[in-house]
Design brief:
The protein is mainly alpha-helical. The protein has one domain: 3 helical TM bundles of succinate and fumarate reductases, CATH 1.20.1300.10. The chain contains nine helices and no strands. About 6% of the residues have low confidence.
Amino acid sequence: MQREATFFGSSIGKKVVMAATGLVLLGFVVGHMIGNLQIYLGADALNGYAEFLRHFLHGQGIWLARAGVLLAVGLHIWAATSLTLGNWAARPTGYRQWQARESTYASRTMVWSGPILAAFIVYHLAHLTLGSAHPDFVASDVYHNVVIGFQNPFASAFYILAMLALGLHMYHGIWSMLQTLGLSHEHWNPWRRVIAGVVAGIVVVGNISIPVAVLTGAVHL
C-alpha cells in the first residue's frame, strides 16, 4: 500500500494515470463522434442508435459506461491539476526570458483547454442529455433535440469553440500519452505528432460538422 501511495504521489505515477485515463476518454470521444455522425443518415438512424444505448445490457450498459467515463474524467483532472501545481511550485518565479523551443501551442494551452472542456461537459449534459438547458427537449427524440439545440447560433458557437479546445487538448494529449506509454524514439517522434494531428483533426471536423450542418440547413427537421 505504501509503495502504491508513493507511486501515485510521484510525477511518473500521475503521468501514467493521465495516459491511462486519456486513452479511455479518447476511446469515448471517438465512439461518441461516430455515433453522433449517424445524424446524417436521418432521424430513424440516430434515434435508433440512442434507443440501442438506452437498452444495452438491459439498460445497465449506458450507466456503466457513464460511471467509467466519470471516473476517468475525475482521475484525469486530479492528475492534471496535481502535475500543474507541482510544476508551478517547482518554479515559483518565471523565466527571465522564455522561448517556446520544445513546447507547442497545444501544450502551452492545456491549462486553458482543460477548464473549457470541463465547462462544456456540464453544459452538454444539461443541453442534450438532461434537457434542462434546451428550449424544446423531447427525451425520446435525439434527432429533434440536436437540430433544435443547434439552431441557436450561440449554442453552436460554444460547441465549435469547445471542439477547437478539444482538438488542441487531444493533439498534445495523444502525443504525450504515447510518450508516457513508452513509444518515444527519435525515429518515431515525428509519427507521434502525425498520429496525434490526424486523430484530433478527424474528431474536430466530425463534431463541428454537425452544428454547421444544422445552421446551414443541410440537416433539418
